[in-house]
Amino acid sequence: MKIKNFNLGLGGFLSNNPKLGNFLPQAVTLFAIIFIIGFFTFNAQTNMDTRGIDFGFGFLKQESSFDIQFSLIDYDGSYSYARAYLVGLLNTLLVSIIGIFFATVLGVVVGISRLSSNYLISKLAEIYVEIFRNIPLLLQIFFWYFAALRALPLPKEAISFFDVSFLTIKGFFVPKLVWTNFSVLFYSLVAAIVSIVFIYIYGKRKQEATGQRIPVFLISVGLLLILPLVVSFLGRVGLDFEIPSLVQHSETIFNFKGGINIIPELMALALALSLYTATFIAECVRAGIMGVTKGQKEAAASIGLTPGQILRLVVMPQALRIIIPPTTNQYLNLTKNSSLAAAIAYPDLVLVFAGTAMMQTGRAIEIVSITMLTYLSLSIAISIFMNWYNKKIAIKEK
Amino acid sequence: MLRTLKRLVYLLTSIALLVSFETGAFAAKKSKTLKKTQKMGYVRCGVSQGLPGFSNADAAGNWTGVDVDVCRAVAAATLGDSGKVKFYPLSAKERFTALTSGEIDVLSRNTTWTLSRDADIGLTFVGVNFYDGQGFMVRKNSGITSTSQFKSGISACTNIGTTTELNMRDFFNSKGIKYEPVAFEKADEVVAAYDAGRCDTYTTDKSGLAAQRTKLSNPDDHIVLPETISKEPLGPVVRQGDSVWEDIVRWSLNVMIEAEEYGITSANADSMKSSENPAIKRLVGAEGELGAAFGLDNDWSLRIIKQVGNYGESYKRNIADTGILPDRGPNQLWTKGGILYVPPAR
Description:
The structure holds two protein chains of two kinds.
Chain A: H1 2-16, H2 18-50, H3 81-114, H4 119-133, H5 137-151, E1 159-161, E2 165-168, E3 171-174, E4 176-180, H6 182-210, H7 216-234, E5 238-242, E6 245-248, E7 254-257, E8 260-262, H8 264-290, H9 294-302, H10 307-337, H11 349-361, H12 364-393
Antiparallel strand pairs in A: 1-2, 2-3, 3-8, 4-5, 6-7
Helix pairs in contact in A: 3-4, 3-8, 3-11, 4-8, 5-8, 6-7, 8-10, 9-10, 10-12, 11-12
Chain B: H1 2-23, H2 32-40, E1 43-47, E2 56-57, E3 63-64, H3 66-79, E4 85-89, H4 95-100, E5 106-107, H5 115-120, E6 123-125, E7 130-132, E8 134-139, E9 154-159, H6 163-175, E10 179-184, H7 187-196, E11 201-205, H8 206-213, E12 222-224, E13 232-234, E14 237-239, H9 243-261, H10 278-283, H11 300-307, H12 311-320
Parallel strand pairs in B: 1-4, 1-5, 9-10, 9-11
Antiparallel strand pairs in B: 2-3, 6-14, 7-13, 8-11, 8-12
């Protein structure tokens, strides 16, 4: 009864007050949102109170007392939960960056290959895309981890690469670089890069002024190689390799010691993420190149540009405008998909923090919110960067 | 305008009050969980995703195991039928959230009773239905026969979200051994990775090792090392805040153990009604008013014994006869050299 009266009264009231008619729906919406959030907070609070669960972030400072298999920073169980969070976050970033790099390289190559006039190459690229984008990612991760892993040998029969790197079921053991006087080399590299930037700007100005092109690329490569080499020689920069060596633990248990171990969980995850996402990027690239009209290439050829120059100076800059926005989505997907790591024991943010840490502390609400916020921030950061890049290469209308 | 806003506020407040009374957390005097369970007609029970002997589903979806039997006992006591249980298979990571959020009402999933779990996260442990300890499994051909032969560089597979991860660190640290922990979310994945040779050893509760060993491609190629590195009292858990429900689950378990102590089995329970011993008569409901304390009838304990059996029967059926752990070890009655000792039902 009440509701009916309310509606009738409001209807007549609003038609007489157009200003209020604009304002009221917005006020009601805002009120409803505040009410809903308030209700859920209140509900969670009372339920937690009756069950004797308290809320707070103090646990982050407590000692975590669990170890993590693989970490980019110093960590063991005597560090805090906050540190464990950081370890998980860095591992997520690591696999995402590796995945984005290989997915981009592979995606561009496959995308261009699909447009190749060579039947075999374009068909192979097509088959790859169709197979890998149509199998669920989790299955691919399981395949690379469990099926491919089983095929790898135990450390004793490791697949050896020139006796310095060893591929085994326990990981890929590669030599560790041990530098002496590394800072000298580092500064020479910085110097080389800075001078390359100046040469690039100078070359561009000169071409605009006189039309003459100087071989910027060749000079850059030369600088990047020769300058650090000469400086290293003069500054006594030394490089040693710590080569992994086989150690026997018991009659049949062997393992490698020393060097760097790229754990199989990381390899399987990075491989699966790259192969899966590359198919989508390949389609973006193909669409981008096909989106550049034929007339552009013909016009470029008619003014005497070489095929390489046509691709680099005419086709790609225009194609990129079409490629970048959908590719951004793929980067975001890859980063978020990396949370499937939990299935194969890669210690990413979800496994370490929303898994072990949540179990050991029981702080479900706090930890899930932190994890969600982290992924949200990561995605937004990638979006902001890609949008900035997209704006940079977009047509600048005057 | 003021009148309209007043009406609006009035309406929203009444909705708010209505909703909060519906879902709100105003605990009833009697067990709210019991009322809800009897209304639904089944007990919501959280179990493992497949641990032979404790909670495991066969091809037809029938759950068996000593953990499962605790839930069946609760169903027999509260609903009169041990079959009225709905099982929720949970990973180690999901189990506590499922319980505290109210998705399940009993968690009977080989869960270790620790101080922080009992006191800190809104849970209450009601007892111990299996005394366990953490151990290690290795390949027989490794030549390792004792944990003292472990050396730095060893890789150990285990589950996340368990006390295992913490004990493992304590153990290896105290021995000064550097190890590689490989922690999976699901037990089946741990078994698969260990089986493939990813890890040199697999560590979890010894009962778990014995049970999971049966899932390996060649169980006879693996041995469980004799050392036990921790205390793992496993038992059923309930949510904090409903002490009557807590008592129902606690005493459902205790009745099973006490029935074994007095030699009451599913077969002879009815005839025990004419026993001379008042303790036995109380257990089979022929004397006293034990059920009334929980808001149950007086045959609640008789139904548990008749439908589920006593603890010894449950152990024999699920763990001994299946070849997982034929020797009861500490899980023997205190009168027979074990540590199973429950307060008297009187």
